[in-house]
Write a structure and sequence with these properties.
0% strand; 3 helices; mainly alpha
Length: 152
């Protein structure tokens, strides 16, 4: 209990040693209103700073969105151009495939013709050698003959 008594005594001494103006007292209503007004002004200042920062961010984001939209539009034009090139290339491939099919058919027809023709030719050839006319026998083929007409 002595510790309690000493603590109470120390508290009384400290309180009594303070000057009369320094002792805690209740604020008058004017000071309380001024403090509330100052707090409100500080909050208003902070809100204005936040709003200004939000406007700066908004401007920056709008510029970024516009840039992104421009790039997107360019990419869409590029895609459309590439689509056109793909369509032209596909049309060309289809035409080439048609040419290949036509040429393969033509080749098959020619091979058949040659096969049938060679069979006919070997079957119709005489066993003995045919004699040629005397002039053809003597002079081998030497290419096209020139006309005897001068200048031609």
């Amino acid at each position: 209990m002595k510790a309690r008594d000493l603590l109470a005594l120390a508290l009384i001494l400290v309180t009594s040693a303070l000057p009369v103006g320094a002792q805690p007292k209740r604020d008058d209503p004017v000071q309380a209103e001024q403090r509330k007004l100052q707090e409100t002004q500080n909050q208003l200042k902070q809100e204005r700073e936040k709003a200004a920062e939000a406007r700066r961010r908004e401007t920056s984001l709008l510029a970024e969105i516009e840039d992104t939209e421009r790039r997107l539009a360019q990419k869409q034009r590029d895609v459309a151009r590439l689509d056109d090139r793909i369509k032209r290339a596909q049309a060309e491939v289809a035409a080439l495939r048609g040419d290949i099919t036509r040429l393969e058919s033509y080749r098959s027809e020619q091979e058949e013709f040659l096969a049938v023709g060679s069979v006919r030719f070997t079957r119709s050839m005489p066993r003995a050698r045919c004699s040629l006319s005397s002039s053809a026998e003597k002079a081998p083929f030497s290419g096209p003959q020139r006309s005897s007409i001068s200048g031609v």
